[in-house]
Automatic annotation (TrEMBL):
Keyword Lyase: yes
GO MF, any single term: magnesium ion binding
Keyword annotations: Lyase, Thiamine pyrophosphate
Parts of the chain that traverse the membrane: none
A GO BP annotation: carbohydrate metabolic process
Cofactor: thiamine diphosphate
Name of the protein: Probable phosphoketolase
A Pfam family assignment: XFP
Residue ranges of every copy of the Xylulose 5-phosphate/Fructose 6-phosphate phosphoketolase C-terminal domain listed in the record: 605-802
Organism: Bifidobacterium reuteri DSM 23975
Length: 825
């Protein structure tokens, strides 16, 4: 990444903040508050110049005021700080309902008009700006991708710190004030986010300043951290590795300039400490400091009417959303609104044309220093393509010599070697993230060129292997944290991958949802947001080989979740099933090159056969599915009695073993493999899917199709609902059956074992003709299970099978030499 170094970073001011700057901040705060209220309430007459009536108020009041004035205060001071210090800065706005503050900030620094020219810097533009907020055909109410300067959608709480710390990794000039709402602070992901300070290096990374915005209330209840004692609060954060500073304002009649002066002084004290941390980190004596954080305590709804209808509003949960919900309906509430708007003295802030006066903006940063213009907040503009090694150097070439089905290789281990060299070629632009599973999922080759970044204490190299204060691998046992780190890393222009056990991807379902929504909004309607690198998720330790961990670890449903995002031709989701090591390499190459996607790469880590050469894998991946002519006994679609299809490594293993049994019976079948699940989707919904003609050519137009599928069968059924021949598909997938058992029993209880697939194929062809064979297969299934019960391991007929098409005459044709240690977590 060509990371911009804006200004002279980490510079102390060494002088008091000027009164002129503080006066500018106060004007900014008043203007931002006025703009925020206008967005929530006004549809016309934005500066109340004409007779101001209830007709100027929106019919439907949508938005949130409670957290907004505190955010406006903080952002005003952050702008002053950026201008005075020339510091490369991106803000994270964690409070979900602070959207009016973010759009107001962008309007005031000019980036909103630059991005959306129809929002002009005059009264007409101001009216459009107000009316579009939370309005049909307008913009959402959160600090969303539509807002310049945002890299964090505030609509889902809990990820402010994860995104902030991900953004600063390998970004040594970047400063990120991360504003955490006190409601957000009660969520599990945010609670774990405080630990991020042990996983960064102040020498090679930037600095995050967590700002806990304590305004006391959520929607209707007090917040926990606002009600505990100051002593307990400070001890808590000190125990988390922070030096907490507290600022309290708004609870008495202190004049605003005094408040601004106190805050600026405290901010400079904190900044001086940050500069000292950065300076110390440049020496050889790197040690984890107590990073400063700010506890910012103000009333909820600060500066709104203190009481409405005799009920406490400012400093109460009643200010959370729209304090004057009847401002259009009742004259009394309208008058309160009018007085509230006038309290900010808009005549001092806007000129006769409705433009913000120059003296309001004089203190603001300029150019790329502006919050809305910082390139780090539009990471695609600074993203560099990865320098990828030649993938042919990592291919499993033995399959070309010995035939399809060679060896027993751990596919993800081969991916680990490829990814190791990507890190070697891109030492500051690529990271691996994982919840303590990098080695378990076989990516540990990366440790040959990097370490796990860790700054939480060491025992010895003998115990704490591959751990160092700097490194391109980050692990913490939190799926939330790892996904959040990678999101922040990607949104600021870098690349990466994270891995998880398949069943525990569900821990971050909502995060994947939100990132997909961000990408969808970007692809559909935000062309100025340049493409970012894709989120690559290695889904391993999957359902079919979690026989040792049991039912709790057996759930492939991440595919079902991601399919919900596959409409409108947005193409923000990729779901790939790595049949073998070569296919996994081809998938990885494609995913590492892709942008604006979430790529779920489902791949096994246990020893398995290699079915395809790299060239064959690439060709299949290009289309998404392919007929395996070399495995088929039918020479044409017309000759085929049945199609045997599979998606996933174990389903492919089982369908290929079934094909051997059907071959012995003289059945004419066609074998099809699917790597890109979305290639099956209706071509009406996905213009990158197989056409109906291609679909019919691969799966035939009228023959029965037995489909062994990695995940839940309804995935495939939903995708092919209007495809040719869909009524003849018989899909076998995971049926929510499992236990701590054997590999054979896992496929048996879910009706996807080779014996059941063979029997099912015979039923689909002619159940009466093959009744005896079907009965024989069903009986053997029970016998094989009983064998496992009696012996504790699977029947040799299952474990010793080798594909009939393999050339076993050469020494070493069947087995590979890859290490298989460390199978369990």
């Amino acid at each position: 990444m060509t990371s911009p170094v804006i200004g002279t970073p980490w510079k102390k001011l060494n002088a008091p903040v000027s009164e002129e700057a503080l006066e500018g901040v106060d004007k900014y705060w008043r203007a931002a508050n006025y703009l925020s209220i206008g967005q929530i309430y006004l549809r016309s007459n934005p500066l109340m110049k004409e007779p101001f009536t209830r007709e100027d108020v929106k019919h439907r009041l949508v938005g949130h005021w409670g957290t907004t004035p505190g955010l406006n205060f903080l952002i005003g001071h952050i702008n002053r700080f950026i201008a005075d210090h020339g510091q490369n800065t991106v803000i994270i706005m964690g409070p979900g309902h602070g959207g009016p503050a973010g759009t107001s900030q962008s309007y005031l620094d000019g980036t909103y008009t630059e991005t959306f020219p129809k929002i002009t810097k005059d009264e007409a533009g101001l009216q459009k700006f107000f009316r579009q907020f939370s309005y049909p055909g307008g913009i959402p109410s959160h600090f969303a991708p539509e807002t310049p300067g945002s890299i964090h959608e505030g609509g889902e709480l809990g990820y402010a710190l994860s995104h902030a710390y991900g953004a600063i990794m390998d970004n040594p000039s970047l400063f990120v004030p991360a504003i955490v709402g006190d409601g957000e602070a009660e969520t599990g992901p945010l609670a774990t986010g405080w630990q991020s300070n042990k996983l960064v290096n102040p020498r090679t990374d930037g600095i995050v300043l967590p700002i806990l915005h304590l305004n006391g209330y959520k929607i209707a209840n007090p917040t926990i951290l606002s009600r505990i004692s100051d002593e307990e609060l400070h001890e808590f954060f000190h125990g988390m590795g922070y030096e907490p500073y507290e600022f309290v304002a708004g609870f008495d009649d202190e004049d605003h300039m005094s408040i601004h002066r106190r805050f600026a002084e405290l901010w400079e004290t904190i900044w001086d400490e940050i500069c000292d941390i950065k300076a110390t980190a440049q020496t050889d004596n790197v040690h984890r400091p107590f990073y400063p954080m700010l506890i910012f305590r103000t009333p909820k709804g600060w500066t709104c009417p203190k009481y409405i209808d005799g009920k406490k509003t400012e400093g109460s949960w009643r200010s959370h959303q729209v304090p004057l919900a009847s401002a259009r309906d009742t004259e009394a509430h309208f008058e309160v609104l009018k007085n509230w708007l006038e309290s900010y003295k808009p005549e001092e802030l806007f000129d006769a044309n409705g433009a913000v006066k120059d003296d309001v903006l004089a203190f603001m940063p300029k150019g790329e220093l502006r919050i809305g213009a910082n390139p780090n907040a539009n990471g695609g503009v600074i993203r560099d393509d990865l320098k990828l090694p030649n993938i042919e150097d990592y291919a499993v070439k033995e399959v070309e010599k010995y035939g399809h089905g060679w060896g027993q290789l751990e596919a993800t281990r081969r991916l680990g070697v490829y990814t190791r060299d990507i890190i070697k070629n891109n030492p500051h632009d690529f990271r691996i993230f994982g919840p303590d599973e990098t080695a378990s999922n076989r990516l540990q080759a990366s440790y040959e060129v990097t370490n796990k970044q860790w700054d939480a204490g060491y025992i010895s190299d003998e115990v704490d292997e591959h751990m160092h204060v700097s490194g391109q691998v980050v692990e913490q046992l939190s799926e939330h944290q790892m996904e959040g780190f990678l999101e922040g890393y990607l949104l600021t222009g870098r690349h990466g991958i994270w891995s998880s056990y398949e069943s525990f991807v569900h821990v971050i379902d909502s995060m994947l949802n939100q990132h997909a929504k961000w990408l969808e909004a970007t692809v559909r309607e935000i062309p100025w947001r340049k493409p970012i690198a894709s989120m690559n998720l290695l889904v391993s330790s999957h359902v079919w080989r979690q026989d040792h961990n049991g039912f709790s670890h057996q759930d492939p449903g991440v595919t079902s979740l991601l399919l919900n995002k596959c409409f409108h031709n947005d193409h923000v989701i990729g779901i790939y099933f790595a049949t073998d090591a070569n296919m996994l390499l081809a998938i990885a190459e494609k995913c590492y090159k892709s942008t604006n996607k979430i790529n779920a790469i489902i791949a096994g880590k246990q020893p398995a056969a290699t079915w395809l050469s790299l060239d064959e894998a690439r060709a299949e991946l290009e289309k998404g599915a392919a007929a395996w002519d070399w495995a088929s006994t039918a020479k044409s679609n017309d000759e085929a009695e049945i199609v045997l299809a599979a998606a996933g490594d174990v389903p492919t293993q089982e369908i290929m073993a079934a094909s051997d049994k059907l071959k012995e019976l003289g059945i004419k079948f066609k074998v099809v493999n699917v790597v890109d699940l979305l290639a099956l989707q209706s071509a009406k919904e996905n213009d990158e899917a197989l056409s109906d003609e291609e679909f019919a050519d691969i799966f035939t137009a009228d023959k029965p199709v037995l489909f062994a599928y990695h995940s839940y069968a309804h995935d495939v059924r939903g995708l092919i609902y209007d495809r040719p021949n869909h009524d003849n598909f018989n899909v076998h997938g995971y049926e929510e059956e499992g236990s701590t058992t054997t590999p054979y029993d896992m496929v048996r209880v879910n009706e996807i074992d080779r014996y059941e697939l063979t029997a099912e194929a015979l039923r689909m062809i002619d159940a009466d003709k093959y009744a005896a064979k079907i009965d024989e297969l069903e009986k053997f299934r029970d016998e094989a299970f009983q064998f496992a019960v009696d012996n504790g391991y699977d029947h040799p007929d299952y474990t010793d099978w080798v594909y009939s098409g393999l050339n076993t005459s050469e020494k070493g044709a069947v087995t590979a030499t890859a290490a298989t240690a460390g199978d369990n977590e």
